[in-house]
Every structure is written in C-alpha cells, then in structure tokens.
From TrEMBL:
Biased composition (Acidic residues): 285-296
Compositionally biased tracts (Low complexity): 340-363
UniProt-recorded name of the protein: Uncharacterized protein
An annotated Gene Ontology molecular function: phosphatase activity
Keywords linked to the UniProt accession: Hydrolase, Membrane, Transmembrane, Transmembrane helix
Source species of the chain: Odontella aurita
Positions of the UniProt region annotated as Disordered: 1-47, 87-107, 199-233, 283-309, 324-374
Xref: InterPro entries: His_PPase_superfam (IPR029033), Histidine_acid_phosphatase (IPR050645)
Keyword Hydrolase on entry: yes
Domain of life: Eukaryota
Membrane-spanning parts: 57-76
C-alpha cells in the first residue's frame, strides 16, 4: 500500500479468446482493481525495504494485454469531484452532481513544494509521460509464429488504487507527527455518490399494471419520478466523513473529513490519466476528431488506436448517434430519442409501455462497455472501487460526453464484481484464509539474507541510529507510508529527511 501506485504498463502475450482471469469470460477487456489485504501483507512490514523492493511497490500498477477486448463494466456507485462534474454538465450530456462543499473544503495543491519527487508520487508530469506501448511493427510476430496477420483481441488491466490518506492510525513516524496540525489533519474534497437499489421485479410489475395507480410507482413525480428508466434524474446519496465535526472531543482518525486510507484528489487525477492512457491505446471513436488530431502526450499527433488498427479493441462507428436515433424510431413509433421517453409513462395500465421499452432496448446499439465487452472485478475497499470507477470514466468519458441518453432515457450501468473483503483471497492475500502466509513472512524475516541486509549491515545500523537520535524512535515498519503520504502531498518532512535529490544515476523515473 502506498500513497500512489498509479503506474501503467502493458505486456503482450498469447491467450485463447474468451479466457479471462480465473476462467471468467470477457470478450474485449477485463479490469481488476485490488489493494493490500492488511498491514501484515504490505511492504511496510519489512523494516528497511531494499530500494528495488520499494520500486516494485511503487510501480505495482500493471496492465497485461493479450487478445480481444471485451469489457463488463460494473458500477453501483458514482464518484466525482466538483470540478470534474462541472466539465460534464451540458445539454444532453450525462450530468454528475457536484459536491456542494467541495469548493470550500481546504486541500493541498500537490507537487509544488519540493524540487523533485520520488517516482512513487506519480506527479502529473510523470503520469503523462507514461503510456501503453505499441505492438511491434507488422510482420514481426508473423515471422515468428508463421501467421498471416496479427491483431490484439483481448486485454487485461490490473491496477491498484491512486493516492490516498495513511491507512493506519497507529503510525508513530517521527516525534511530533501526531500533534502537528498540518500532518495529522486530512480534509477530503473527493466524495462518493450512491444510488438506491434498482427496482424489484414486483415493482416493475406494479408499474405496468397500475397497482399503485395507473402505471405509477410510489413517490413518482409527474415527470416520471426517479425510475432508472425515466427522464427525471436519479436520487443520489453523497457520502461525507464529517459526522463528528460538530461533536466536541470526537473526530475521525486523522481529524478533518477523511477516513483511513481514503482516496484523495491527486489519486483521482492519477486514475483519470490512466484511463485516458487505456483509451488512447484501445479505443477508436470514428466521430472523435482527437483520435486523428492532437497530442497523445508522447509527441505524436494521433493516439495509438488511430495509428494502428490492430490496437482497436473498441472501434466505435462515426454514425453511432444516428444508429441510436434510428433504433428509437423503430422501437418507439417515430420521433427522436427524447420524445420516445414518453413511453415510460404510459398511464393506461395495459403494460404496452413495458413492451415498447423492451423492443427499443433490443434494437438499441450496444454501449462499448455493455456485457460481455467489459468485466470489472474489484476488492470491496472504497478506495479501490473509486479508483476503478475513475479509471473507467477516463476510458469512456469522452464517449459519454458526446452521446445523448439512449432512447429509453436510461443511465448507463457498469457492473462491479466484488466479494466480501475478508473472504476475498483472489485479489489480495489474507492470512485468515491462508494462515501459511504468516509462516512465510516469519521465514523471510528470519532468513540469513534478510538479517544480513536489514539488521546486521552497516547501512541498517546507521539508519537505525539516525532514526532514534534524530527523529525520536525507530519507525521503520511505517517508513514508506510515513514518508510518501507526507512528501507526495507537500507536507513538511523533518529537516534530517528533507534531502531527496532524485533517483540514483541510471534509474529511470518512468519505469
């Protein structure tokens, strides 16, 4: 776990079409988001991490690409910040409600205090320099495999969450850390929106038969209410960790309005860029000028999917809006998509509206993220769920902004596949599921190699003496989290530690 694991890579290799992680079928793309299961499984437990081990943690964000890309996108929760919501507002767009208090919540403007930052911090400049690598020139694979042609047909993306608050309220760090207002207070402007559960089958039947009035559900309005298939907006619930701010003597773990391990604004921006990297590599929108013009961040005038047809896992036709309008006319008896939404409020109790909706749904062109084109698997941690949603918004956000609602007026839905966090041993190692993990940790930390490097070496002794004499204690178990969540958010480091001057010679901060 760290304040930032938002690097992105892509590795190509053979895989039969339809084979997903764990046997899960996804036709085009499978996206998996996970975090460490507990403090015992984080690199922070290694008292003095080897530099290479630390780099491996910092660059734990990896994308694996294999064959066709089919995405099953899951989402029961919407995550947005006020500024991003404002960008999405507009006539016919999918509007995201802003957080009323986002503009007034104090926050840090990151990456301006220190002259250089560790790769772990993933600054905006470092994020923009990263990209999905292209396929080798045509003919390269063909000559090796004896194939006539090669095309990418599926991709897997494995990611971790973006920048977050510290995950442990028992961190000691250096003297004065817990008492310092700047270091111990975290206020979060990034909030979570939740929608109510979808209607039950009985509710849909009542709507069609008029059990609560002709074609109406309880609490519906004249405009159609908050049904997911109506033109009226959904009722959303914004989640804020401010319930203790007005209670004397009580506060969250880090004071302020953040919870332990909560995704912060810089993490939002990191995952947005990661989603854009995926879009540039795999999505070609024939109606999007920026696929053919502009800068992809690597000095090119067009993105990878525009340059190389073999990378187009999502090839969206330029006439997609026309196809939507045509499907609405075919299913709704004429008129444009907006007018056809009147069918949702057929009040004669005959059930004809429901039948018309089904016909329209069957004829509507698929969203690129409709099943089985996208499969989204995530562990049940708030920061990982939010990170995945933000990444997928970066991947498909341009498409949503440029398209009107479908003829039924329904909101796009991406399904989030998850499991009970403490029983989910697929994405994150859990000692409760596999007690042998504790034995492996103990074996590793008692090994001659570990002892020689982290306990008996001159470097280990020097580091331990420095921490005790200069900072008031040996907090090596929490060193990565203490240092990175402080430096990457432009908070004050102790003078003795405020001397970072970049990576050693020969290291590349884009690795």
């Amino acid at each position: 776990e760290s304040s930032n694991q938002s690097n992105l890579r892509s590795v190509f290799g053979p895989q039969r079409r339809g084979e997903g992680a764990g046997g899960t079928y996804s036709k085009n793309m499978s996206i998996t988001v996970a975090s460490s299961s507990s403090s015992s499984s984080s690199f922070g437990r290694l008292r003095r991490p080897h530099p290479e081990a630390s780099r491996n943690v910092a660059f734990a964000f990896v994308a694996f690409a294999f064959a066709t890309l089919y995405l099953l996108f899951v989402s029961a929760t919407s995550v947005e910040a006020a500024e991003s919501a404002a960008e999405n507002s507009g006539d016919g767009d999918f509007d995201v409600p802003p957080s009323p208090s986002s503009s007034s919540v104090p926050h840090y403007r990151y990456y301006s205090r220190y002259p250089r930052y560790p790769p772990y911090c993933s600054t905006p400049e470092a994020m923009k320099r990263r990209s999905i690598p292209p396929l080798l020139p045509p003919g390269t694979y063909d000559a090796v495999a004896g194939l006539k042609s090669t095309k990418l047909i599926q991709a897997f993306a494995l990611i971790r969450h973006g920048a977050r608050t510290p995950w442990d309220d028992d961190m000691t760090c250096w003297d004065g850390y817990s008492d310092d207002e700047e270091l111990s207070r975290w206020d979060c402007e990034l909030t979570e929106f939740m929608a109510y559960p979808p209607a039950t089958k009985k509710e849909e039947e009542d709507l069609a038969t008029g059990a609560d009035g002709p074609g109406r559900r309880p609490f519906d309005t004249e405009e159609g209410g908050d049904s997911p298939s109506s033109e009226a907006p959904l009722l959303l619930f914004e989640k804020r960790y401010d319930g203790l701010t007005s209670v004397s003597g009580m506060n969250n773990a880090f004071n302020g309005t953040c919870r332990l391990g909560q995704l912060i604004r810089s993490g939002y921006e990191q995952e947005t860029i990661n989603g854009q990297h995926l879009r540039d590599a795999y999505v070609y929108d024939g109606d999007d000028d920026k696929d053919d013009e502009g800068d992809d961040g690597n000095g090119s005038n067009e993105n990878l999917a525009a340059r190389d047809e073999r990378m187009r896992l999502f090839d969206i036709p330029a006439d997609y809006p026309a196809l939507v309008r045509q499907s609405s006319r075919g299913g709704g008896g004429g008129g444009d998509g907006d007018n056809d939404n009147n069918n949702n409020n057929n009040n004669d109790g005959s059930g004809e509206a429901s039948s018309s909706q089904q016909q329209q749904q069957q004829s509507r062109p698929k969203w690129p993220f409709d099943p089985p084109d996208l499969y989204y698997r995530v562990d049940n941690s708030e920061r990982t769920i939010m990170s995945g949603q933000i990444l997928l918004r970066g991947l498909f956000g341009d498409l949503l902004r440029s398209r009107r609602r479908d003829p039924l007026g329904t909101n796009p839905v991406i399904i989030t596949h998850t499991a009970d966090y403490w029983y989910d041993g697929i994405l994150t190692a859990k000692t409760g599921i596999c007690p042998r993990l504790d034995d492996l940790w103990d074996d590793a930390e008692s090994s001659p190699e570990f002892t020689a490097m982290y306990e008996s070496s001159d470097e280990a002794a020097l580091l331990s003496d420095m921490m005790i004499e200069e900072t008031g204690g040996d907090w090596g178990d929490d060193a990565v989290d203490c240092l990175m969540t402080t430096m990457c958010t432009d908070r004050t480091l102790p003078d003795v530690l405020n001397d970072y001057d970049g990576e050693p010679a020969g290291d590349d901060d884009d690795d």
